[in-house]
Design brief:
This protein is α/β, with parallel strands linked by helices. The protein has eleven helices and nine strands. Strand 8, helix 10 and strand 9 form a beta-alpha-beta unit. Helix 6 (152-179) packs across helix 7 (193-199). The chain is globular.
Length: 300
């Protein structure tokens, strides 16, 4: 199962404020309070709202696993009282869905619901799909513009600027793949699924292994053996590791990669200290590029 957050860690990580702390009000005098499920979505919201709203992120830091987090009564109150709730959706931050299900009138932006249709399988980690993130930013601007018309133009301009930055990062992802034709990886969890797909990097992780990771279950011994074979025979260029969830199986895989001199690409589901969404994604692209630069030529 996924590593659970201890009570102490959850208490420390529960509420973090992203953005400005001054009083923000609608034209009608009401305060503008945006609540995000994680600091990833809080950072996206902050880029759009600028100085016109307070953004509160329920889950911050890279210690906790968002899948296994449970909202406290204080968190539920933050969500139910928000001017707008921004969350991942797709069952990823189910604890937000649970609160919103009893508060149907709360305005919301559900990232997963904005994922573009594709013949390829969907993945819940839509914060790595930069096209979806752009749609989330635009939806935040649109919804806040409706309720706070005095600042609607600023929201729209901020979302457009943020979207341009996302386009630049998406182009950098594609450039990494173009510079490393035929590059492939195995992933301990399909967190960076969309970043790899946009780059054209092949993920050779067995489907049943990936499915188990998504469900928070231990992969079967046969699946672990299949991944280890790909690593030990150097049939992949690197491995991708979600540093927020370590199990005996993922540690075994990471250790095998180091033994085989395969690069390890580290990814997270929430923001590392000191980074906003854009700097986090830029750093991820840079790490993928650097690790693939050092990869041995895969065996055929």
């Amino acid at each position: 199962m996924r590593a659970l957050v201890t009570a102490g860690a959850a208490a420390l990580l529960t509420v973090g404020v992203v953005g400005c702390s001054q009083d923000h009000r609608h034209a009608d005098g009401g305060s503008v309070d945006v609540v995000a499920s994680t600091d990833v979505w809080g950072s996206v919201a902050s880029a759009v709202v600028g100085d016109h709203a307070t953004v509160t992120s329920i889950l911050t830091g890279t210690v906790a696993d968002p899948h296994s987090f449970e909202a406290s009564p204080a968190d539920a109150a933050e969500i139910s009282d928000a001017s707008l709730v921004v969350f991942n959706g797709g069952g990823y931050d189910h604890w937000v869905d649970e609160v919103l299900s009893t508060n149907p009138g709360v305005p919301r932006v559900d990232g997963y619901s904005l994922l573009a249709p594709s013949p390829q399988p969907a993945n819940e980690h839509v914060f790595y799909d930069l096209g979806t993130v752009k749609e989330v930013a635009n939806s935040i601007a649109e919804k806040l513009g409706e309720s706070d018309s005095a600042n609607a133009a600023d929201y729209a301009a901020n979302a457009a600027e943020f979207g341009d930055a996302l386009d630049t990062i998406a182009a950098a992802q594609r450039a990494v793949g173009q510079s490393h034709p035929g590059a492939s990886v195995v992933s301990t969890e399909p967190v960076a699924y969309y970043a790899l797909r946009n780059a054209g990097i092949i993920d050779k992780t067995p489907e049943t292994f990936a499915d188990a990771a998504e469900e928070g279950d231990d992969p079967s011994p046969a699946d672990v053996a299949a991944v280890l074979d790909l690593i030990n025979s150097q049939q992949v260029s690197a491995i991708v590791v979600n540093t927020q969830t370590e199990t005996a199986a993922t540690k075994q895989i990471s250790d095998a990669a180091r033994q085989a001199s395969l690069p390890v690409i580290s990814v997270t589901e929430t923001l590392p200290d000191g980074l906003d969404f854009l700097s986090w994604q830029r750093r991820t692209v840079d790490e993928i590029a650097a690790q693939l630069d050092s990869a041995p030529a895969p065996s055929r």
